[in-house]
Prior knowledge:
Blueprint: H1 2-23, E1 28-33, E2 39-43, H2 56-68, E3 77-79, H3 82-85, E4 99-101, H4 102-112, H5 115-126, H6 129-142, H7 169-179, H8 183-189, E5 193-194, E6 203-204, E7 216-224, E8 228-237, E9 240-249, H9 253-268, E10 269-275, E11 280-288, E12 293-299, E13 303-308, E14 315-320, E15 325-326, E16 334-342, E17 345-354, H10 363-368, E18 369-370, E19 373-374
Parallel strand pairs: 11-15
Antiparallel strand pairs: 1-2, 1-9, 3-4, 5-6, 7-8, 8-9, 10-13, 11-12, 12-17, 14-16, 16-17, 18-19
Helix pairs in contact: 2-7, 4-5, 5-6
Amino acid sequence: MILSLIATLSLCLTTQTVQQQYEQLPLSYICIEVETGLVITESNADLQRPPASMLKMMLMLLADEGVEAGKWTYDTPIQVSKFAQSMGGTQVYLAAGDVYPLEQMLMAMSVLSANDASVAVAETLFGSVPDCLEAMNTRARELGMSQTHFTSVHGLPPSDRENFDLTSARDMAILGRESLKIPHTLRRSSTKEYTLRPGTPARPSTNKLMDRMPGCDGLKTGYIRASGFCLTATAQKDDIRLIAVLMGSDREGRFNHTRDILNECFDKVMRIQPVFSGMAIGKSIPVEKSLDEVVGLRASKDITALIKKEDSEKLFLEITAPVALEAPVEQGTECGNVRLMLGDQILGISPLYIDRSVERARLIDRGLGCLGRKSQVR
């Protein structure tokens, strides 16, 4: 009896220690620009920790990608099982036997973070939760989410309090960026209230940052004790869209701190356009076997880039072009390129084209004077 009690106590202490290990982790955050993936700021961004409900972004991404691939549609009926009905935490109180279109269930997951809807979607689309988890982890590997391993489709604590879902702030930013490639993502995540059943009161979105920051329209909240309060947020200001991920915060801090991170990062970046389509680039190029003529080079397209303001003085244009050409040359012919560089990093590139045609000089022309040298007729 004594040995049994000791073993039970030891197991409880071990289980508690695993959860406390995650509870005591320092804050993690990262902010990236969506178009380029540029990391603007980060702290402990690769620290592995539970994501809680933020992992629902992966299930929603797979559902959307399945629609694009023709595997199912947004009208596909999602059947609720007894297991789905039994989910705790945040839910929309589904009952076994209920059937809803996929789109309505995705809205419940995105806006209301419904755990029961997540399980129902996983079971219906993938046949079982284990098969869905295999698909989720495979997609995570494909996206380069190296710190991520999913053990649930909802983010709730595991029954053993040991095998938690794990990810990092950087991996959640990767997932958020991929999710934004789906047009429906922002439509759902920007919805401020939703009801699954017509005629019943709408419930507010779990993402309170949308009420506190202009331009914020997503993406996903998360909370369990082991994860702390988490948020993957996105906001747009002018033509720049950022994603910020905060993990391990407190109830109010996750919204206020994430807002501060986004605002600070918007102030740290800018979009530049050092090259315009048709802009003259570099020096004139001499054309051999012509009558002392030269041609210019022009950019065939704009070069734009989003950079950190602190890097603006480090930029330069690198031109690749011949030192001379041989006639005849034709206007519009591609001839080299210009690249916008930041150190060894290419931020943008544009082909160059010749701005005018030059004919080859005839022999009689050469006799009278070629390439700037006047000849005396004997």
